Amino acid sequence: MNEGNFASGATDEALHHDGIGETSGAQSYGASSIQVLKGLEAVRKRPGMYIGSTSIEGLHHLVYEVVDNSIDEAMAGYCSHIQVTLAIDEEGRQSCTVEDDGRGIPVAMHPTEKRSSLEIAMTQLHAGGKFDKNSYKVSGGLHGVGVSCVNALSILMEVTVCRDGGIYRQRYSKGIPITEVERIGDTEATGTKVVFSPDYSILEEHAFSYEVLQSRFRELAFLNKGVAITISDTRGEEVKSQRFQSEGGISHFVSYLNEFKRTLIDPPISIEGEKDAIKVEIALQYNDKYDEKILTFVNNINTREGGTHLTGFRTGLSRVINVQLQKNPKLLKKYDEKLEQSDICEGLTAIISVKVPEPQFEGQTKMKLGNSAVTGVVFSLVYEKLGNYFDEFPAQAEIILTKIINAALGRVAARKAREQIRRKSEGGGLPGKLADCSEKDPAKCEVFIVEGDSAGGSAKQGRDRRFQAILPLWGKMLNVEKAQEYRVLGNDKLQPVISTIGAGLTRYNDMGKDADYESDVTFDIEKVRYHKVIIMADADVDGSHIRTLLLTFFFRYMRPLIEAGYVYFAMPPLYKITIGKKVEYAYDEEARVRILEEIGTNDSSKVAIQRYKGLGEMNPEQLWETTMNPETRLISQITLTDAEEADRVFSMLMGEEVEPRRAFIDANAVYVTNLDI
Fold first, then answer.
1. Peptide bond before 329: cis, by omega within 30 degrees of 0?
2. Residue 538 annotated among the catalytic residues of the structure
3. Closest CA to 248 of 386, 351, 110, 377
4. Residue 326 pLDDT > 60
5. Residue 555: phi, psi to the nearest 5?
6. Residue 337 among the catalytic residues
């Protein structure tokens, strides 16, 4: 067999099968097929490798990359204020401006590259000051690709630098300079201003989310004592702006997360220390809830998948708790079996922030820390300083230990309740009151969870049986915010909901698994029987209460259901407006006024207005037409953009503490326009 001519890309015909000729695209692979991507072409060709995705998460990642550079200046001690502004530019494009008062990116000629250092930093991968330990001892960006990636994925970028007595500016498009580095003025100030507009020919077209960015900048302010971060949104008619600054650091962060919860000890326990150039800050506090909330950060980067710093913390905490428990025979008598990690972390809110000179992350998006040395450093600090705290304050130690023992006893009770649920499901399957649909593909199915048998009866008659299922609810719904897990599992009002959805449920907010019954405490999104779970309740105060109770249950025990976008609110009309033979439905007060204005009649005798007090007042045809028909109905999808903020709101509205809820009502009463009492 001939070896083939590699220069031309031709090969022996014996290599081709079934008559496939050389003109086939699959067979035209040769030297000319090898592409060399220059400059920032690789970023534009494969953006997901550098920013995680081209979705809205990737869009926000661009903002974080620029802000992280400013934060690195703050960690180095040179930056005190960062201003982020969202706007629409003169061409109608989304734009983001990040301005700081740091040292400013160097602009002088690079000694070896013979170009401005600014241009190199903005247009060349693996170029930046983070490689020089004299410039930054610790930083979030270590690969030198962050801001240049932002430039590559921007249709337009402008960088203005104040340093060395001058103001310098350079503009770019798609990562390529379109101007030289120009000196445009004089100043004694220092800092960097970056303005960029995303290139939506590569990125999916999404607008920057003020709320999502606000949440991240709040975190950064807590993680960096004294640094002020302001975010402003000028895109709407009304400018939104908020300034974040914390002098208490992560201890205040924990207090913020627990603001609407009943805490067991106050203030939060603080642990600080440094070893082998690794700086560790930890703040923790127990509350009377049933979940854990542990947030971990490395050089201000939120490591959502944890890593070695989280491992060190968990191991150290477990060791301390077990040592302290051995000193308390009274509690040992109540529960002398092995404690699970979930017992120890029930009701725990903690922030772990480490500063590492050479962090090893898994990928450019930095979701998990890999430095093995960090585990030992965090473990030793937690074991030593938390142990000292418990020895110094034995009363606080006993309060926490009692909480943990009660968590273990609750876990055992919940295990028994889960066993009962499993036996019921094996024996009978779906609840008796469920009117199921005939379609078996979950993606095509929807279930209406309906308040009351009366509305449930109308819904069953009015539905499309092919793809719509109806589950009526009756009696008072349990507020899961105030109940332990085993009470939730044993509740006869919630069991039909659990069985109907068919995917099990997590422990409270998907906290640590019960090692002995892992399969029973995991919500499996793949087993959900309906991809639309629609809560249909009356458009009154009682209906709102039902919706809130169910939503609290889904958030605490089936959060993946919300995260997948499967939970909806039905929007039944408030009014039926009849003009002769014509019927209009108004879904709110504004719609009623608009419809009446459009009618334009002054003869009230020709207009009949019916105010619906409940779904039960509608006949099956009306319920189908207004609330259930996919062609005409209004449904509202429930989304989760800020889990921490959602947690605080649920705790405030549904928890034991009355005063925060009263303050919220007082503050928002002015916005109520149609109170049905």
1. no
2. yes
3. 351
4. yes
5. -65, -40
6. no
Distance CA 176, CA 124 (A): 10
Annotated catalytic residue, options 164, 540, 642, 644: 540
Amino acid, res. 62? L
The residue with tokens 């693996």 is: 126
What's the confidence (pLDDT) of residue 390? 95
Q: Which amino acid is at 66?
A: V
Q: HEC profile for 509-564?
A: HHCCCCHHHHHHCCCCHHHCCCCEEEEECCCCHHHHHHHHHHHHHHHHHCHHHHHC
Question: Residue 167: enclosing H or E segment and its boundaries?
Answer: strand 166-173
- Return the closest-CA partner of residue 198 out of 62, 402, 335, 381: 62
Our CA angle for 76, 81, 87, nearest 5°, is: 125
Cα–Cα distance measured from residue 539 to residue 592, given in angstroms and rounded to the nearest whole number:
15
**How does pLDDT run across 263-310, given as a tens digit for each residue?**
999 999 999 999 999 999 999 999 988 888 999 999 988 898 899 999
Beta strands in 179-239 (DSSP E): 182-186, 191-198, 228-233
What ranges in 162-233 are assigned the alpha helix state H? 210-223
Q: What is the 3-state secondary structure (H, E, C) of 302-359?
A: ECCCCEHHHHHHHHHHHHHHHHHHHCCHHHHHHCCCCCCHHHHHCCEEEEEEEECCCC
Supply the pLDDT for residue 301: 86
Token pair 């939104």 in the structure block, residue: 240
Q: Where are the alpha helices (DSSP H) in 437-532?
A: 453-462, 485-489, 495-501
Sheet with 348-355, edge to edge strand ranges = 269-275, 278-286, 348-355, 293-298, 301-302
Catalytically annotated residue among 100, 451, 485, 584: 451
What pLDDT digit, counting tens, does each position of 429-462 carry?
677 789 999 999 999 999 999 987 778 888 999 9
Interval 340-370: pLDDT, tens: 888 999 999 999 999 998 889 875 556 889 9
CA-CA distance, 438 to 440, in Å (whole number)?
6
**Highest-scoring range by mean pLDDT, 122-131, 265-274, 336-345, 659-668:** 265-274
Q: How confident is the model at residue 611 (pLDDT cuts 50, 70, 90)?
A: confident
Measured distance CA(36)–CA(42) in Å, rounded: 9
**For residues 288 and 260, what is the distance between their CA atoms, to the nearest angstrom?**
11
Q: pTM score > 0.85 for this model? A: no
Q: Which two tokens stand for residue 464?
A: 């499309």
Structure tokens at 340: 């699970």
Taking the C-alpha atoms of residue 17 and residue 24, their distance in angstroms, rounded to an integer, is: 12
Which of 369, 375, 268 is closest to 319 using CA atoms? 375
Residue 85: count other Cβ atoms within 10 Å of its Cβ.
Answer: 18
CB 369 within 8 A of CB 359: yes
- Would you say 231 and 214 are in contact if contact means Cβ atoms under 8 Å apart? yes
Does residue 512 surpass a pLDDT of 60? no
Q: Mean pLDDT over residues 208-212, rounded?
A: 94
- Spell out the domains of the chain, with CATH numbers in brackets: 1-34 (no CATH), 43-244 (3.30.565.10), 249-408 (3.30.230.10), 433-572+639-671 (3.40.50.670)
d(CA 275, CA 281): 12
Q: How far apart are CA 106 and CA 109, in angstroms?
A: 9
Q: Are 444 and 467 in contact (CB under 8 A)?
A: yes
Q: In whole angstroms, give the CA distance from residue 431 to residue 434.
A: 6
Per-residue pLDDT tens digits for 411-426: 888 777 766 666 655 5
